[in-house]
Design goal:
mainly alpha, two-stranded antiparallel sheet
Length: 109
């Protein structure tokens, strides 16, 4: 996926909801982490779209990895090998993974 589109938003929305459920978090938690204006999904997507437009898909994935890392730190599990939820990993560029909030080529730490 190379550009932000309504179709991309339609795919991203359920992915985010599944990820939040997997993480035991809410849209309010995501709003706080992203500093969005509202807990409503359009406001959250607006912040993510801005990240995508500034830094591309890798930047968007990195931002979600950073949020996940922050949540893990809050929960007291700061493993340096934190893997993204399967739903988030669908949108990481091929051969990339989350590691301590970063998007790195697979095999690097």
């Amino acid at each position: 996926m190379s550009s932000w589109s309504p179709e991309f938003e339609q795919e991203l929305t359920p992915l985010l909801k599944d990820w939040l459920k997997h993480q035991g978090r809410t849209q309010a938690d995501l709003r706080r982490s992203l500093r969005a204006l509202s807990t409503r999904m359009p406001a959250i997507l607006e912040v993510l779209e801005r990240e995508f437009r500034l830094n591309g898909l890798s930047g968007l994935a990195s931002k979600l990895c950073q949020v996940e890392r922050e949540w893990q730190e809050e929960d007291g599990s700061t493993s340096s090998s934190a893997e993204p939820a399967p739903a988030v990993s669908r949108y990481l560029p091929a051969g990339h993974r989350c590691s301590v909030g970063e998007v790195l080529p697979a095999g690097q730490k």
